[in-house]
Amino acid sequence: MGLVVQKYGGSSVADAEGIKRVAKRVVEAKKNGNQVVVVVSAMGDTTDELIDLAQEVSPIPSGREFDMLLTAGERISMALLAMAIKNLGHEAQSFTGSQAGVITDSVHNKARIIDVTPGRIQTSVDEGNIAIVAGFQGVSQDKKDITTLGRGGSDTTAVALAAALNADVCEIYTDVDGVFTADPRVVKKARKIDWISFEDMLELASSGSKVLLHRCVEYARRYNIPIHVRSSFSGLKGTWVSNEPQGDQPMEQAIISGVAHDTSEAKVTVVGVPDKPGEAARIFRAIADSEVNIDMVVQNVSAASTGLTDISFTLPKAEGRKAVAALEKTRAAVGFDSLRYDDQIAKISLVGAGMKTNPGVTATFFEALSNAGVNIELISTSEIRISVVTRADDVNESVRAVHTAFGLDTDSDEAVVYGGTGR
Amino acid sequence: MGLVVQKYGGSSVADAEGIKRVAKRVVEAKKNGNQVVVVVSAMGDTTDELIDLAQEVSPIPSGREFDMLLTAGERISMALLAMAIKNLGHEAQSFTGSQAGVITDSVHNKARIIDVTPGRIQTSVDEGNIAIVAGFQGVSQDKKDITTLGRGGSDTTAVALAAALNADVCEIYTDVDGVFTADPRVVKKARKIDWISFEDMLELASSGSKVLLHRCVEYARRYNIPIHVRSSFSGLKGTWVSNEPQGDQPMEQAIISGVAHDTSEAKVTVVGVPDKPGEAARIFRAIADSEVNIDMVVQNVSAASTGLTDISFTLPKAEGRKAVAALEKTRAAVGFDSLRYDDQIAKISLVGAGMKTNPGVTATFFEALSNAGVNIELISTSEIRISVVTRADDVNESVRAVHTAFGLDTDSDEAVVYGGTGR
Q1: What residue of B is the nearest CA neighbor of A53?
Q2: Contact B99 A66 (CB under 8 A)
Q3: Cα(B409)–Cα(B396) distance, rounded to whole angstroms?
Q4: Does the interface predicted TM-score (ipTM) exceed 0.90?
Q5: B76/A69 CB distance under 8 A
């Protein structure tokens, strides 16, 4: 058949039973005639336990040593998984990130993959073994130190290995059945998406969907590696993420892929900014210099009477204090009136490449919110996404209203279709 | 000053408190002007917990994967120790066995060190860091697979690194104050030995003393690395093991270094062996072919009337069944009468280079046992050791009697001295 890279998260290998269940699934893929490479995370709570240990020893653990510590987690799960597979009568070999050729930069705790040289993995599968690779970890190019890739790193390991091995598919096994049209905990009638394009998936990921991280999807798009997100518990078909639909996947993409929401952000408003060239640049240079990442940025026309305007932006709540401090320092130079900080907001985003060619999407979106009695505070759009900021208290109702309005509910006959082009 | 290699066992780093205590001691050595390399074992029960996990997953874990699993243990302790040291304001870097250049053969679970190429460790200490190295582990020369050195492997790592780095001393920190003239749990009046020669230490180690393993002492003797065995809890001076006494160590070695005992062996007697050339060779070839290691071997003159003799040997109890099975197969060829197997024995050994030049040692030894009412079943000697086999029930009384007879008790004024030469 081909070469399959499978990735199993910590919840799939949380205990001996989980590891045995995963081993069976891996062996199944092998029996179907595939070469199989498995990327595995640390067991369940192992990483948290190691972090606790580090805290007991040192309040500010060194990055290098923290990485050395955390990488013990995958070492345990991968060795156990290899044992469990061998116990089923198939050959398996486990490899650390370093042995698998995952080369990174030297930024400990959130290293980026520079190169993957999977010679040992290729040899191992060519010899008939199932290769088990530690996710989340690599080795730095210059110092040969052990590094970790940061949050969601195992998904990135899987996609990067799939690219380097020229795999046919990268299967990401998780504890949900796939990517849904909205968070099923909020919208009971959310549908599992059978296929979604890389572009729409990227927008969903950056709008609050947590199934796949932006970084992993971006990597897959760059190397054109189809991702199959599916449950390690149910065995059902999940969601394919790729350039084009494949096989029995629906040939046509829905107009709207889904509704995402995000309550992890805060809103900062700079009030009374003189409306002249260079003021916005000064403000965002100050933010950038304090190493704060911002998300939405909105500036409206200034009031003619005052020549002053307001600039708003959103950012992760955790970085709010840093951003406000940086801005306060520039107040004299920029000459703005005041700052407002608001962390009781939610962002609701509608994502779908179809909105490019279907007018009325924006109107339907806003009408749905209005009918639900939800006030819109900020609006920001990309080619295939519309995002609004509302009160945090309104988030669940907003998502449900929009989901229903676009015919995404499971009991709708089909999605709403618009005629014409443009939105 | 010089370069010091320190080794801390699992009981010394059993929890966060232990790790912090060890960190202080390491920093003290650094403050005294030394370059410091630390070899560390896995925390307390970590290894046992990992073994339990492996058992849950697979009844017969693969050697390669078992080593991958177990080496997670030192990875955790070494990273935590490095963090704790940095927390005290000193630079520290941890290294895996592979990174430290510990090259082994490919025999998983009990690999032997072939070479040590400590380039990264040397660079690290030259840059002013304290280098922390994972004990017990290495990387195989041919396949680049992770290996472990088997029981007591961390001591061997420490001595091997000390040799490769041309260290001034290898300090082995443990949970006892040093090497004693007898097991202090058996002999309350046992004395701590200040200095002992490699030769005497080797004999003690192979006679049942558990403080240092034979393999580690042998390595130290070959490369002439002085070992200082001491407690990580008390801070007292311990026992120096070296070719010659150094500094304020006693210039003259005691006649008798100590009394060791071992209750882990069983005795096999081959009864009624025809007393002709080649019979003993057949018997021990059969044993060797079954990969059983034997210890003492005793054959006495045959009875003139029958032309038959008995051959006895001792071996680890765990290998008794295998040896007996191997011998039964040769019964027809050798033509012996019967086999006797006895696992209720103890071996008591008196060790000391002084016995070479002091007559009467053997006589005193046997008289002490006789006065204690202990029957001697087998006798075997080397140049600097006398061993006897007794009933297992007699072991404690035997050791105490011999210890007293040779003036080794702490309340004795001095050791018994013999005149003349030869024993």
Answers
A1: B16
A2: no
A3: 15
A4: no
A5: yes
